[in-house]
Amino acid sequence: MESTQDELAQPILLPKQYSSSPEPVSSELEEVLSNTDLSYFRRIGSATLIELNILFRLAGPAVVVYLLNNVTSMSTQIFCGHLGNLELAASALGNNGIQIFSYGLMLGMGSAVETLCGQAYGAHKFDMLGVYLQRSTILLTATGIPLMIIYIFSKDLLLLLGESTEIASAAAIFVYGLIPQIFAYATNFPIQKFLQAQSIVFPSAYISAATLCVHLLLSWLAIYKLGLGLLGASLILSLSWWIIVVAQFVYILVSDRCKYTWTGFSLQAFSGLWEFLKLSTASAVMLCLETWYYQILVLIAGLLENAEIALDSLSICMTISGWVFMIAVGFNAAASVRVSNELGAGHPKSASFAVIVVTSTSFIIAVFLAILVMLLRHVMSYVFTGGTTVADAVSDLAPFLAVSIVLNGIQPVLSGVAVGCGWQAFVAYVNVGCYYVVGIPLGSLLGFKFDLGVKVIN
């Protein structure tokens, strides 16, 4: 990535018109941490208050954005679930088994923008943010073409993996409607990271909230009034993601907050693509190894005895886990922005202190939510389906879900720290060892050989 490193290494020469440019990263936290006139405990107390204020202004709206986007996708699954158990299993397999494949790849590749835009913003290289946004969009759109082919042949792939013909056929219908969503991802994630690097998160939250309302109305009309079924549900989901993309880009064009970071389309976006691709690939591998792990769990559940109930119960637990995971992903984004901005501004103490505060905060929230899951374990499945058999299966899985929630409160945040530092390749090696060398083989062994079923897979 010599080209991108050189761009960040160039001297920072801001012309006069940049005098009203975006506010630089505050040095207040660094000053407090370096102030030896204060006692240790007073330094830590003051620094904690400063960092929590910054963190929640970043993480709060980011959590809302990821939750609302996730609820937009999951609401489609809920609508389908009330059509019947087959439709719930099909939408779960399509949403959590196929769609998450492209979600993980696109979000992972988009995190390269997070690293470079965050450090460029901290270093006051404002004009480079728009260039990085365009480079990432070009690469992700090109990546969407082979993903589209995978979607087209999803039925054959699911049958090859051992899924039943009935479930694979229904899931394929759902997946066909998600093809436009691939290219919405290709544009959305670079835009989202571009805005987050500048601590612009509230507009995305408002856009996501408005889109969710529109999505719920259109989904209700398409599924229940027009009878368009699984295909109509997924097409509406794709449309909703494109509404988010268009609205966010319009905001970039008209907002004064982006006038120095977005200066229009540039041919410079086509230079340095190879170096940018290498960083994007490392970012994608880091996140894909994690998201594909959950995808593989869904596929394995489809091979168990009584696969429909196994898929339904596991998908409900993973949906709930996904909602909680979105909170951690919001803190992941905040951690990445804080670390990359502070490193770009040359504030190492602030960067390390931000890591401690964001990780501790996310862990405390995860513990609270895990307790809540245990208290609601007998009733939470009725949001998705009315079947008592599925409800009993979800109740049995609740303790395992609670443990997963606590662990997911920490791991994504640490990944965000790695993104802020540009350590994606290191995290990829860690994910390979934890998820694929230990997790999947052990879960498969206990689930099939020792007949412990979906509990050990969860």
From TrEMBL:
<dbReference type="GO" id="GO:1990961">
    <property type="term" value="P:xenobiotic detoxification by transmembrane export across the plasma membrane"/>
</dbReference>
<feature type="transmembrane region" description="Helical">
    <location>
        <begin position="426"/>
        <end position="448"/>
    </location>
</feature>
<keyword id="KW-0472">Membrane</keyword>
<dbReference type="GO" id="GO:0042910">
    <property type="term" value="F:xenobiotic transmembrane transporter activity"/>
</dbReference>
<feature type="transmembrane region" description="Helical">
    <location>
        <begin position="316"/>
        <end position="339"/>
    </location>
</feature>
<feature type="transmembrane region" description="Helical">
    <location>
        <begin position="138"/>
        <end position="161"/>
    </location>
</feature>
<feature type="transmembrane region" description="Helical">
    <location>
        <begin position="229"/>
        <end position="253"/>
    </location>
</feature>
<dbReference type="Pfam" id="PF01554">
    <property type="entry name" value="MatE"/>
</dbReference>
<feature type="transmembrane region" description="Helical">
    <location>
        <begin position="351"/>
        <end position="376"/>
    </location>
</feature>
<feature type="transmembrane region" description="Helical">
    <location>
        <begin position="397"/>
        <end position="420"/>
    </location>
</feature>
<dbReference type="GO" id="GO:0016020">
    <property type="term" value="C:membrane"/>
</dbReference>
<feature type="transmembrane region" description="Helical">
    <location>
        <begin position="167"/>
        <end position="188"/>
    </location>
</feature>
<keyword id="KW-1133">Transmembrane helix</keyword>
<protein>
    <recommendedName>
        <fullName>Protein DETOXIFICATION</fullName>
    </recommendedName>
</protein>
<feature type="transmembrane region" description="Helical">
    <location>
        <begin position="200"/>
        <end position="223"/>
    </location>
</feature>
<keyword id="KW-0812">Transmembrane</keyword>
<comment type="similarity">
    <text>Belongs to the multi antimicrobial extrusion (MATE) (TC 2.A.66.1) family.</text>
</comment>
<feature type="transmembrane region" description="Helical">
    <location>
        <begin position="283"/>
        <end position="304"/>
    </location>
</feature>
<dbReference type="GO" id="GO:0015297">
    <property type="term" value="F:antiporter activity"/>
</dbReference>
<dbReference type="InterPro" id="IPR002528">
    <property type="entry name" value="MATE_fam"/>
</dbReference>
<dbReference type="InterPro" id="IPR045069">
    <property type="entry name" value="MATE_euk"/>
</dbReference>
